[in-house]
Amino acid sequence: MNLHPNHLSLAMLNWMQSMSAWQIAKHVSSNSNGSLLDRLSPLANHQLKSNPQRKNPRQKNRNPRPSAQAANHASAPSVNPTDVFRDPEFLRILQREAELRTHSALDGLKHYQAIDREHEPSYCRTLWRRGTTELNDYGADLPKTAPCLLLVPSLINRAHIFDLYAEVSVVSTLVSLGVRPLVLDWNEPGLQERRFDCADYVTYRVTEALSQAQRLYDSVHLLGYCMGGILAQAAAQTAWTKPTSLILLSTPWDMSPFHLPEFTEESIAQMREWIMRQDVMPDWWSSAVFQLKDPFRFQRKFTRFLQMNEKEQQHFAFVEDWAQDGVPLSRYVARECLIDWPQSNPLLNESWRVAGHSITTHAPCPTLCVIPKRDKIVPPTSAQPLADTADHILTPDCGHISLVVGQRASQSLWKPIAKWCGAG
Questions:
Q1: pLDDT at position 11, please?
Q2: Contact call for residues 174 and 149 (beta carbons, < 8 A)
Q3: How far is 364 from 233, CA to CA, in rounded Å?
Q4: Per the confidence metrics, is the pTM higher than 0.85?
Q5: Cα–Cα distance between 109 and 198 in angstroms, integer?
Q6: What is the pLDDT of residue 338?
Q7: CA-based angle 312:293:255, to the nearest 5?
Q8: C-alpha separations of 37 from 32, 89, 230 in Å
């Protein structure tokens, strides 16, 4: 298994940010607003408790030999965090801690690389193909009358999240529940797709795939996951024949949580210009954007990996492989998703147009909206506008990825969805 480039980059970033934080903290005035000091003070207190013989550098040694009774009853001296941050000993401790955590994470990464990932993908037949996009049918053994569920993944991620491995396969679960899964697989952008924006993907891929499925089967439900939910919402409103129902999983709509207030208009313009100079945006670039929202997550998850049992480690490896193996984006899609949508919020403002239609939160068919409570990728507030107009809402207690492939996903998500589709 090859090493994903983001992993090594984030390992180094963890160490560098620890040192950068110290360089900032040691120059913070004790009269500053305190937000940084409030967050870093526990480090200072921990350093003091770990080294009780070390005193506050500003505290005078007026009582060099206190009595034993006084020592037992005296409270710990108050510490000014800025003094500790200027202490060379604190820098030494911080460097050591950063090194230990980085080595622990790299040890976890090494074990992750060694995990066996043998997996035979589930059988499917390709029903339709346009450019590099395919519509694959995983329900060959089901009767033609079985309800169909057309699954639309995010443009950023690969479709095999729906067929991760034998024990955790959404398509296999749906087949066992009597639902025919049809999966839209983007693959990498070809010559046609490199000129697409998101509206083009809706018009020339999602709605055409939906039409193909409707020609073959009577009842076709449309499901979108994450960004795929945005495309599915638009397709339901612009398709000539509407889907039987619409299911939206962790779908962002209000883009204000993704706004970049720390960037100036000039820097935003430079980012937009840089994106438009690319032929396609490489998959590692968009992956890095999401990783850098919480760069220390790398250290936490690979350190935690060492405490997992064998089954948990294998599941982690398949999920991590999928998360790091993204899909390149056309420059127009990248500009919309990474710059334009977060900055101007056109979905919430109903200014996004597809095939001449202004796309809104109101779908023309029964809608099920699923918002996981612990989603850190798509905050629940971002998906709430869609829930406000949905016919039914599910709020499982899970995260963005565990919603779909977590240990309880079959019970908490796919069984209710199969029931929603009329199976059983």
A1: 53
A2: yes
A3: 10
A4: no
A5: 35
A6: 87
A7: 110
A8: 8, 18, 41
The Cα-based distances of 391 to 78, 365, 369, 372, 373 in angstroms read: 57, 9, 8, 17, 19
More confident residue, 259 or 184: 184
Q: What is the pLDDT of residue 258?
A: 85
Which of 32-46, 52-66, 274-288, 299-313 is most confident?
Answer: 299-313
Per-residue pLDDT, averaged over 192-212, amounts to 97
What pLDDT sits at residue 246?
98
pLDDT tens, position by position, 109-124: 899 888 988 889 999 9
Structure tokens of 116?
Answer: 């066996």
pLDDT for residue 175:
97
Rounded to whole angstroms, the Cα distance separating 255 from 257 reads 6
Neighbouring-strand partners of residue 370: 249, 394
**Strands 280-281, 329-330: pairing kind:** antiparallel
For residue 325, the tally of other CB atoms under 10 A from its CB is 14
